Amino acid sequence: MEKMPFGKKNYQWMVIGLVTLVIGFVIMSLDGEPYGFGFLGLTLGPIVVMAGFIIEIYAILIKPEATKSDVKK
């Protein structure tokens, strides 16, 4: 059986990153200023979105943990 490219921890971090991205875009859409030029649309939302992308990069780069089936006897 082939080894999966990502482990359980990788997928958990990917989901956390996706949720963070969605929250960031929702924050940007909640801005009441015209064309989104308020604090939420120009500052807070983009910071949260960037954090989501950083979490996604981290999720891809962390090394998956070895399981018992991966260790050869």
Describe the structure.
This protein has 73 residues and is mainly alpha-helical. The chain has one domain (8-61). Helix content is 62%, strand content 0%. It is built from two helices and no strands. α1 runs antiparallel to α2 (39-61). The protein starts with 7 loop residues before the first helix and ends in a 12-residue tail after the last helix.
Features:
2 helices; 73 residues; rod-shaped; mainly alpha
Q: What does the secondary structure layout of this molecule look like, with pairings?
A:
Elements: H1 8-29, H2 39-61
Strand residues, percent: under 5%
Helices and strands, in N-to-C order? HH
Average pLDDT score: 91
Number of domains: 1
Largest sheet: none
Short overview:
By secondary structure, the chain is mainly α.
